[in-house]
Fold:
Amino acid sequence: MLALAGIGELVTNDPALDGGPLGVVRDAAVLVGGDGRVAWVGERRALPDGHADRLVDLGGRAVVPGFVDSHTHLVFAGDRTDEFAARMAGRRYEAGGIRVTVAATRAASDAQLEANARRLAREALASGTTTLEAKSGYGLTVDDEVRLLRISRTVTPETTYLGAHVVPDGTDPDAYVRLVCGEMLTACAPHARWIDVFCERGAFDADQSRAILAAGVRAGLGARIHANQLGSGPGIGVGVAADAASCDHCTHASDADIEALAGTRGRTVATLLPVADLSTRSPLPDARRMLDAGVTVALATNCNPGSSFTASVPLVIALAVGGMGMTCEEALWSATAGGAAALRRTDVGHLRVGASADLVVLDAPSHVHLAYRPGAPLVRAVVQQGRVVSGGLS
Ligand code: NIG
Structure:
């Protein structure tokens, strides 16, 4: 077993330990079992003797659970530098930009797509993400969507079928929805855990979104939805009614939307993606209003080439605290336990005994530094299932 000791501040997300949501233990230690799970956590002075083959002193650094990034679009080709620059010069963001990436993705080889996805997955890991979800959605033909999901599966088991990202150019929308709910779903479902739909003006309307999620659920997939990103609309209501694990974006959520999310008592999480709002010059979502109403909030990167080209959860945490009214504690919880809730996972997002030993050693004495020092390279080491996968412990 590996013992990590000398932890100045350990965040476990186990409220039983200190009565607060983060379950903070000071002067702490963690024992990691050979099975890659947390075997023991507590104060250093209570560390049981004789169990560890190796003991590492972390010199007072903070340790937090590995980040759970529950919304990414990792498999694509090309980039949209020009579109971004034009937006920063005043042009509006439109859902149709997705088609530019679809064209580049269809033209790319599997090897190119895999290399790009692996590079981004490595970036995510190096910034502390130990669990990530990845969507298809830049293929939009049966073969290309299957290809994207197969490649996604090489980087994560949390794969999402997003054939309903936009209607491809030159295609009749009704015929495309039939394809998404029929032949494409049949081909994609074996490679996916989730189904998603972009419910937005310019993408899919409420009736189409309902039909797509219902078809996915009948095929054994869990539902999630892109909702209320670019304007107010029916997305959150559709997601809640479909028992979606998560409504993502929620930038333009009404009081009724927030009430509906709160009414699910955490069954449907609001996943906020502030870099997308930053990169599209949109208002940031009002996390405070949601939290005060009792909504369970997750934070995620939305890593994609159009609206949010980053895999950095620490950046998202800093934005959530600085611009969305979240406390440092709430933002860290939302980027760990909140992400796990958005994926309906109980084995990650916390460091209770039996959890996957996924943790981040910070070059800082406290998790507060994640927001206090935006942009600073604070991630010293990342442990995933008990193995050091980035940086070093000594
Ligand atoms: O979550 N909103 C839809 N999908 C992505 C954007 C993808 C793109 O612009 O390429 C998002 O922001």
Q: What stands out?
A: The longest strand covers residues 2-11. Residues 73, 97-98, 101, 198, 226, 229, 276, 302, 304-308 surround N-(iminomethyl)-L-glutamic acid (CB under 6 Å). Residues 110-126 form the longest helix (17 residues). The mean pLDDT is 97.
